[in-house]
Design brief:
Blueprint (H helix, E strand, L loop, with lengths): L2 H26 L5 H6 L6 H8 L6 H5 L1 H18 L3 H23 L9 H28 L1
Length: 147
Amino acid sequence: MSKALLNFIIILVSAFLFLSAVYIYVSNRSGDMALYSWLGIDYNNYFFELIRNHSCRLSPWAKYNLPDGLWMLSFLLFMESVWGNEKRLKWMFCAPIIIFAVMIELLQYKGFFPGTGDVLDIVYYIATVLLFLLLINLKQKCYEENN
């Protein structure tokens, strides 16, 4: 498999993960979330109404924690497709996002930032980084075997 094809597949997986997280978030969360006001999104528009009407019931961990892990993995995979061989540059972009995500959860937990500060979100972030490292290791082995 060529490097370009492998990167294209990684981008497709990244996009799928991101859109899955958005779907879970929009279809299972209330419209009074701070995120909507920060982004200037009208939660009551036709698009969001359509998604909410066709959503499925999810367990609490899938509703509240899984989207965080999916967003993180999507971002990390996208950075891998952009900076694959440039480990220093890749981690220069990835490390601050990982640290920022964990810090936001800790600040929420301590009451310094709006939100719930769920410890499970931090667990998902750590698990996501470990999964990412495993996937990158597999990608590297796959690439080496074919070249």
